[in-house]
Amino acid sequence: MLRAIGAVSAGLLLAGTFSACAATTPGGGGVDEPADVNTLERGMADGYLRVGIANEPPYTEVNADGSVHGAEPDILRAVLQTMGIEEIQGVITPYDAMIPGLNADRWDVVAAGLFMKQSRCSAVAYSEPVIVSTESYGVPIGNPNDITTIQDAIDNPDLKIAVLSGGFEEGILKTAGVPDGQHVLVKDARSGMEAVTAKRAHAFLLPTLSLRSLIEQDASIEVTEPIEDAPRTGSGAAFRQTDTELLDAYNEALAEFKQTPEFGEILTQWGFDPDVVEGVTAEELCQTEG
Ligand code: 6CS
What digits encode the pLDDT tens for the residues 161-200? Predict the structure, then answer.
């Protein structure tokens, strides 16, 4: 095993644990593997899967040594290990590139808090959910514009809201009918915070826990309470729709893993409430508009 810290190529930061035999062909098979080997078989033979991630704690986090953590990768790794796939190789990518990259075989699974909604569920095969969470606004200290709901952005056409380009939150604004002119599109979470501090946006719409992590580095921004009129955000691992064996095996292993104390411990360690995901299904979350 060779440990490597991220290598940057074509805008993608490769990070994580790389196996010495990690070279993959465009078809996804290892160099010595036939092209018709499916992703589950390949993962078991190679001992790892390639995973699309962000670097947005607590959902996903890449450490200085290149190791991949956060609630979703930690659960993914733990479940895959029970299936005999020991490691994951992380590829950092923007949210709007996660599904195209998965379907172009640049990675085998997305585990990044990629929230389920109709359009995404028709493009990938989601596992059952592992996280159910909430959205908030990051606003200047004191919340001078008193922005607490999505309706506030509809009621006040002067308000500009920063959102990740192609992210779930951009979809929330679109579905709610907040005009495009009020969206300030940013490429990553740090740029969203900067949009607020530089007054290009009045608020940054992002998951509550991601914002709480970001304000540890920025004392000029506060996080609102979870937004009551935002949809419930739920995520699990996203696989290619052709990878039915992998999806089925993963869901079976996940159901067992959810019964162990380790499932709740991982979520709690990253600040998520394990109780709120109990009984929630991918089918329900996939009804979310957008
Ligand atoms: O699913 C998404 O698109 C969103 N998920 C997270 C965890 N953060 C921001 C992103 O837009």
Answer: 999 999 999 999 999 999 999 999 999 999 999 999 999 9
Does 95 sit in the ligand 1 pocket, CB within 6 Å?
Answer: yes
* Angle (nearest 5°) at CA 75 between 70 and 81: 125
- How many C-beta neighbours within 10 Å does residue 286 have? 17
Residue 62 neighbours by CB under 8 Å, 6+ apart:
6, 13, 15, 16, 53, 55, 68, 69, 90, 92
Calculate mean pLDDT across residues 57-67. 96
What's the CA gap between 173 and 164, in Å, rounded?
Answer: 11
CA dihedral 159, 165, 169, 175 (to 10 degrees): 80
Query: 169, 172, 223: which to mutate for ligand 1, most atoms within 8 A of CB?
Result: 169
Separation CA 93–CA 110 (nearest Å): 10
The owner of tokens 């979520």 is: 267
pTM for this entry = 0.90
